């Protein structure tokens, strides 16, 4: 006996993969969470299967059911009456509607979950589905519990006409209430998610996760091709396509979903209000006189060394865990900016940094650490998440400057940087920024409007690169060393000027000579700085930051 994998089958049946067409034994498929072991194709799950895979055993409590919010408002009949279609769907699936809403835990973390089921009328969004998802959001609001929405849908339910259309507005407003209350929302996209479901609550969540190969879009490929006669790119609207185009935070295989969701949910409780003591003495130097006088040009060259630790090198060493989140939710995912959720001795925070590389290939792939507008919009999105969840923000700065190309100008580079400056100035959470390498112009400042701005001793920070300054004012790029001295880009001078609040010493020979010690010094300095800021009232944090920059 063989069937495609998106149908319920007996465990001893052979099933045929819907992608590679291989036959797989049913028990093996069940052990593999209904993912084809040959090609990795993720078959469709029923809502009960999904709940059983993700939720802790014994923790699941069904929320109130809604079987007919509007009944059959149109008396709709196509090849059969709508009422008959509903009855047939209930008989075939054993469900009341196309969504199951529960209260449960995932690895001990409380969650309210709305789990859609494509097997019930294509997972369509009707009045009952909209009402149940809205009530799930209201339950999350009442208990201040993160909301998880798992989608599988062809879109709004045609048989309910404009009533189904109104569910998009109702559910979107319910998520807006959770935004205003500071409650985490997460969506998990399974295949397929289209139409009104994609264009409402699915894409409004704080963090969006997709299963491999899952398709999502407002209009399906056939509609697009028939309407505008356009040939669509390979893999159009798949999870991987969406990740590349900045629409989802991560693509996660089913075997890892429980642990990834648990990590996200653990940040949903917000900051604890306290941070542990640093592992060692506070290394921050606040007296310029205790720092050696340095010639600027050698420091510039040292700050650019390929061997220096990158943001990801530091995050992996100073944080207990780091979960990278992707995309600007608009057009793309800039590789020159990495950011996401981090944990510092169990305290969640948002960590963001410029990312270069250690080889020419890595530098090229990361655009030499020069962010596009998408990078700064990703940064802004993550900072707004920190604001919503009341999480501290840590930024690491290492960039020659913002990307100056034609596409960046066409996409609003100046607007993106300006938006970040204004946003950071008003963030009601602690913000600590560290210049770890190059701090180049507005591209660096866009991540450095902080309560405390720190700097590594071999880093530089300037309004323009020495080469750029020399080309403009000396009309000779070879005058870069002279320009560097005139700009006073090194740590001691910047501490004297009040541009930075403290300098963090580096290991002998620079951070590249001892990654672990460099990270330990950075971690101690960051922990000390955040500890001084944690517990301050939001209004005081904003005022202290504004006064810091107002004084310059």
Helices and strands in order:
Elements: E1 14-16, E2 23-25, H1 26-31, H2 47-54, E3 61-62, H3 82-93, E4 99-106, E5 109-116, H4 127-143, E6 147-153, H5 161-181, E7 185-194, H6 195-198, E8 207-210, E9 216-217, H7 221-228, H8 239-244, E10 250-251, H9 257-267, H10 296-303, H11 311-318, E11 321-324, E12 337-344, E13 347-354, H12 360-365, H13 373-389, E14 393-399, H14 406-410, H15 413-425, E15 431-440, H16 441-445, E16 452-456, E17 460-462, H17 466-474, H18 480-487, H19 491-497, E18 502-504, H20 515-533, H21 538-550
Parallel strand pairs: 5-6, 6-7, 7-8, 7-9, 8-10, 13-14, 14-15, 15-16, 15-17, 16-18
Antiparallel strand pairs: 1-2, 3-4, 4-5, 11-12, 12-13
Walk me through the structure.
The protein is of the alpha/beta class and 552 residues long. The chain folds into three domains: 1-43, no CATH class; 44-267, 2-enoyl-CoA Hydratase, Chain A, domain 1, CATH 3.90.226; 288-550, Alpha-Beta Complex (2-enoyl-CoA Hydratase, Chain A, domain 1), CATH 3.90.226.10. It has 21 helices and 18 strands. The strands form three sheets. Strands 3, 4, 5, 6, 7, 8, 9 and 10 form an eight-stranded mixed sheet that branches. Strands 11, 12, 13, 14, 15, 16, 17 and 18 form an eight-stranded mixed sheet that branches. It has a two-stranded antiparallel sheet with strand order 1-2. Helix 4 links the parallel strand 5 (109-116) and strand 6 (147-153). It is elongated. The termini are far apart. Mean pLDDT is 92; it is low at 1-9.
